[in-house]
Amino acid sequence: MRPSGRKLDEMRPVTIETGIQRHAEGSCLIRLGKTEVLCSASLEERAPPFLKNTGQGWVTAEYGMLPRATTTRNRREAAAGKQTGRTTEIQRLIGRSLRACVDRQALGERQITIDCDVINADGGTRCAAITGGWVALRLAANRMLKAGLLTTDPIMGHVAAVSCGFFAGQAVLDLDYAEDSEAGADGNFVMRDDNRLVEVQLSAEGAVFSREQLSNLLDLAQGGIDHLIAAQRAAL
Amino acid sequence: MRPSGRKLDEMRPVTIETGIQRHAEGSCLIRLGKTEVLCSASLEERAPPFLKNTGQGWVTAEYGMLPRATTTRNRREAAAGKQTGRTTEIQRLIGRSLRACVDRQALGERQITIDCDVINADGGTRCAAITGGWVALRLAANRMLKAGLLTTDPIMGHVAAVSCGFFAGQAVLDLDYAEDSEAGADGNFVMRDDNRLVEVQLSAEGAVFSREQLSNLLDLAQGGIDHLIAAQRAAL
Amino acid sequence: MRPSGRKLDEMRPVTIETGIQRHAEGSCLIRLGKTEVLCSASLEERAPPFLKNTGQGWVTAEYGMLPRATTTRNRREAAAGKQTGRTTEIQRLIGRSLRACVDRQALGERQITIDCDVINADGGTRCAAITGGWVALRLAANRMLKAGLLTTDPIMGHVAAVSCGFFAGQAVLDLDYAEDSEAGADGNFVMRDDNRLVEVQLSAEGAVFSREQLSNLLDLAQGGIDHLIAAQRAAL
Amino acid sequence: MRPSGRKLDEMRPVTIETGIQRHAEGSCLIRLGKTEVLCSASLEERAPPFLKNTGQGWVTAEYGMLPRATTTRNRREAAAGKQTGRTTEIQRLIGRSLRACVDRQALGERQITIDCDVINADGGTRCAAITGGWVALRLAANRMLKAGLLTTDPIMGHVAAVSCGFFAGQAVLDLDYAEDSEAGADGNFVMRDDNRLVEVQLSAEGAVFSREQLSNLLDLAQGGIDHLIAAQRAAL
Amino acid sequence: MRPSGRKLDEMRPVTIETGIQRHAEGSCLIRLGKTEVLCSASLEERAPPFLKNTGQGWVTAEYGMLPRATTTRNRREAAAGKQTGRTTEIQRLIGRSLRACVDRQALGERQITIDCDVINADGGTRCAAITGGWVALRLAANRMLKAGLLTTDPIMGHVAAVSCGFFAGQAVLDLDYAEDSEAGADGNFVMRDDNRLVEVQLSAEGAVFSREQLSNLLDLAQGGIDHLIAAQRAAL
Amino acid sequence: MRPSGRKLDEMRPVTIETGIQRHAEGSCLIRLGKTEVLCSASLEERAPPFLKNTGQGWVTAEYGMLPRATTTRNRREAAAGKQTGRTTEIQRLIGRSLRACVDRQALGERQITIDCDVINADGGTRCAAITGGWVALRLAANRMLKAGLLTTDPIMGHVAAVSCGFFAGQAVLDLDYAEDSEAGADGNFVMRDDNRLVEVQLSAEGAVFSREQLSNLLDLAQGGIDHLIAAQRAAL
Questions:
Q1: How sure is the predictor about F1, in pLDDT bands with cuts at 50, 70 and 90?
Q2: Closest-CA residue in chain F for D26?
């Protein structure tokens, strides 16, 4: 019934390959079916100005899409001279999500920037970016611990994200582009490995939804998150 | 226990005054406690290019904050030469939310732009903008119906929005700035008058949350939405 | 004979309501007929770089127009990414005009920014902005004196502005939009309460003018300024 | 008593050399003492959109300053990515001033752009730009008449501009930079050869002024304008 | 003697993997030692305006570098709001180089955009972009021929590019970053498979050079180009 | 056979007039046939940040074209809000070329900016800018030496540039616009007075070329450079 033939609660195959960008403190390529996102973590020994003298650090994110990640070429944001509203919204989401597992005091007055660049887009790029971004962040923290820059691990558990929504009237997990473009309501769920929610975003451009339907999506999301966290563990 | 002395499920006083911007097809000033947002609806007899020859119209929104709506002056975005990520994120939310009550076929190939400008900010400006924006939209549709531009009402019920979150460990309704800046998790809930959800956005920058807590917030939100829809009815 | 039925030397009703933006050091809403401009004064305890170590302060202004202040919606400058030439010209005029009543030595190394945002436009917005901006500035100085930040009053008398021009061949005071869009020559006159001129700007896009005509406009302007200064006094 | 030794009502030497930019429909280099401005007129066989199907044309102007026209290098606006408020204000003034001598119906649906680029700045650049811009415009109209593009001359008389102000308490004509930077009030006067005023701009950043003083400046300006129009005649 | 231990005329290992971006009409990942560039070709059935009604098509290129392709993170151009001078210079070079093998009449009124995004940078990224860009272009043309969009092959032979320069006083082929950052003169040589030169760019920031030295570099370049063209053939 | 009637190896008349911009530390107007470029050198007693505490200085360049330097008016870059790719490419070339004759240690931690603004364009503007820019730089250094700011001359010999290319199948020196727009391959050659090459840029948009042809152009270039250096000497 799903265009891909998947079951309602079946995710696409996930693989995470680390060490793609050799200069980065941490990096990986996450593949979620045909969606591919390159994630890197860059350490800067200086926190942003608003944290000056607080002893706390920051984790932020930037998101981009290569022009031909999509069916038809999308305009290069660097050439257009500005990032779209969609881009800024996504990169703010990635940053907030990853900060939910960071002990910013333990990190100290440093900044880690997570860059997420979409190589191929087939739905779910922001969720892949969060899930892969966590791996890059984890690798960067490992390297800092090993180098003695940190004494306490600033990463408190895993963070991963999955999309769920209604396709052809059914709640489905991990929508691909064919489903996403037809979906009624469509949401993104960010969770930690302690089953706590980090972010819930559910939008009904096509069809409004009930609390029961939100609950169904949360059930599906839980299963997807477990799967993604297993993939994160496997990659490390 | 709340800084304002309000009960956990108590909203701030809401008033909606219409006809503020006399040139607009619809306009109002919504006051949510000390938060004040001016909303207007502008009709353009031309839909955006991507709807050409579809017979469908569009509703979009723009959001701004006067430089001294806030405790310290914030930089004028027109002078800075760009809108912040926060602004674009909010105006996308307002547009999506209002489209959830619009029959775009009944609207025809037209665009209505909802402008929401914050005069005074004390928390909850995006929710006030959605709730007031709906009134401006409703007034514009009324005028179009009266003028015979439309034969079918394109507005399907009310849309309103309220924020809920955790303050000092308790779920509270309609956070003001003092609460918002201290809140653990903080969410925005957009609903229609048929009790269906339009948008749920819950973020945990400070503290992650459980499904039970999300459920508590949804309970509170329902009460707030009823209150706001009553204020919308009173204003018309 | 005037579209509004006013006499040649009759101003529109003027009201000035203070305390509109509660966070600002001073603020007011000035209404000049159907023209409405929100003015605020924001104090910053730091002068601009070019005044570093001079002991002198600065007063500057920014001007904006809400998108639907006008008959048809005008594009939001923040979305366009730049201020128009008209906007920059007006805000430079407001700043220069207000500095003409400021003892910058008495102000000390501080900056006061006057924000003028047009809620409804019906001609004369820049004059309303100067007249209302002075009230915001006066209120801010009062607060600084009261708080002991200043020992000498840095405000030397009132500043107000009015437009005059030729409509249907006659010199008229305080042009509204219907007159302004048809006017031959059209000017703005900024004066102090000691009857000294601060700024004279007279442009003849449609019809050139003689020195006698300039003199007629100056006569009219004097009466208007007296009226506006009385309104400023009443508001305080 | 003036730094240059000039009399109070004495202009600097004026020369206007035509044909500097050989591709332009009209061009000249105007020298006003040590101030040098290159002016060109470019014809485009298309009026701006707002004049479509009105049968009327347009004259507009752009102004720039070479980075090292000034004592210390000023930043190249093309590199900065925006024109300053001063630049937009000046180019709007030049356009308005020159349109005051143009019969836009006789011009037909065409646009002439006057470019004014300052090679060397020593005060009075905007006045030199208007005076020289008129010569470029006149030359372009001559060429169009000769080529049979126009049957009626669209240029109605001369337009020229001069600055006057108060230096060391005295009204002086044609301020150079040494005077301008010390001037109390400082104004620009644009006039036609029929002695009618086109634009009066008088600003008092340092010292407010009386109507008598404005009158004194107008007397001085009249003499200066006569001198400049004679120079325009000599150049053609 | 070279940091990498390579011989003076020895290139780094080259591999070209095709089909990386599945939506693109042609794509590949070219690896030149540790330098990795993703290249794609996007077809648009419309030529740029200046070719309207000429029957000719266009090939253009855009270049970008992922923020962490380099040792320290470089600022994302989309966030900065503009492309650097280096970027525009490189993308113009890529476009010119590839057009040298294109029969634009045979292509017809279409545009092919070559996007080159650097995943990892270790010197020679612009040469890798040209060499890989040619493969993407070739694949896109193949697909167009197969689909019957074209009847004549618009690609006339191979184009490839290599860098040569002086390191430690010796002429060396294919400089990596360690060599490039120390090089005296450093050049890029673009050639076709008929041994004709397409572009020669040789710059001497550190050390000027003689005609004999230019000749030595051209000898080296010839060998490198042969090697790269063999890699292009192997990839197809 | 050449449109201008010149011999294949004949340059256009060259004149260099110094002292054009009196505020600049050095300036000249270089005329290369009908091409005219105004060049100035501006000294700043501060090196760019990346040279902080190295004891070394910097020479950089900016390039612009007046809107009506060309046959049809080109858009003012300051109004467009960005420099074109062509402009940034040219100004980077000018900067690199001039740095090839500068002893940056002898210059000390200062920056000299060379501004090159094209008054009239008839081909070869970038070569004229380099040749004239060197004169402005030399004059600025002379002034610094005279003023005792420098004890060692930081300028090591002359730098000049000339274009050569293939017109109607023949190698020609110093292409004017009529030739340039028809040229097969077209290159720019920057050399010092010790006959060493500083920069070679040869592009084949229309027709690829052989090493023999490159050699022919180098022969022609040498003659042109000698001529230009003689003109530089004559101007000083």
A1: confident
A2: F68
What are the two backbone dihedrals, phi and then psi, of residue C67, each rounded to the nearest 5 degrees?
-55, -35
Q: How many CB pairs under 8 A join E and F?
A: 85
For residues B145 and B111, what is the distance between their CA atoms, to the nearest angstrom? Answer: 15
Mean pLDDT of C111-134: 98
Check D198 against C211: CB less than 8 A apart: no
pLDDT(A95) > 90? yes
Do the beta carbons of residue F177 and residue F202 sit within 8 Å? no
Q: Which two tokens stand for residue B55?
A: 């017979």
Sheet holding D58-65, edge to edge: D14-18, D26-32, D35-44, D111-120, D58-65
Q: Could you give the CA distance from residue E173 to residue E6 in angstroms, rounded to a whole number?
A: 9
* ipTM for the whole predicted complex goes beyond 0.90: yes
Strands (E), C102-232: 111-120, 159-167, 170-173, 186-192, 197-203
Cβ C18 vs Cβ C135: under 8 Å:
yes
Q: State how far residue A199 is from chain B, nearest Cα, in angstroms.
A: 5
The three-point CA angle D178-D184-D187 to 5° equals: 85
Pairing state between β F111-120 and F58-65: parallel
Specify the DSSP class assigned to residue F22: T
With beta carbons less than 8 A apart as the criterion, state whether E125 and E35 touch.
yes
Check CB contact under 8 Å for A23 and E120. yes
Average pLDDT on A131-147 reads: 98
pLDDT 10s digits, F192-204: 999 999 999 999 8
B97-154 pLDDT per residue, tens: 999 999 999 999 999 999 999 999 999 999 999 999 999 999 999 999 999 999 999 9
Rg (CA), chain F: 18
Exposed, middle or buried: residue D181 (CB in 10 Å: 0-12, 13-18, 19+)? exposed
Residue C197 to residue D205, Cβ atoms within 8 A: no
Picking from C21, C34, C77, the nearest residue to B78 by CB comes out as: C77
For residue A26, CA distances in Å to A57, A228, A236, D105 come to 17, 18, 11, 68
Lookup: tokens for D85 = 């408020």
3-state secondary structure of A173: strand
How is the beta sheet containing C26-32 ordered, strand by strand?
A: C14-18, C26-32, C35-44, C111-120, C58-65
The residue with tokens 């990414």 is C81
Name the phi and psi angles at D98, rounded to 5: -75, -30
Element (H or E) spanning F113, and its range? strand F111-120
Chain B: residue whose CA lies nearest to C72: B23
3-state SS, residue E188:
strand
Separation in Å, CA of E88 to nearest CA in chain F: 5
Model pTM above 0.90: yes
Asked if CATH classification 3.30.230.70 holds for the domain at C14-235, the reply, yes or no, is: yes
Say whether F205 and E96 touch across the interface (CB within 8 A).
yes
Whether F191 contacts F224, CB under 8 Å = no
- How many Å lie between the alpha carbon of C195 and the closest alpha carbon of chain D? 8
Q: List the structure tokens of A139.
A: 């690798």
Contact of C210 with D196, CB cutoff 8 Å = yes
The 10 Å CB-count burial string (b at 16+, else e) for F123-138 is bbbbbbbbbbbbbbbb
Report DSSP state, residue B93: H
Residue given tokens 């020369």 in the structure block? D15
* Per-residue CA distances from F38 to D113, F28, F116 (Å): 23, 6, 6
Separation of alpha carbons E186 and E199, rounded Å: 14
- Residue E142 CB neighbour total at 10 angstroms: 16
Look up residue F6 and give its DSSP letter: -
Contact D135, D16 (CB under 8 A): yes
Contact C210 D187 (CB under 8 A): no
| Cα separations in angstroms, F52 against A11, E154, F105 | 54, 52, 13
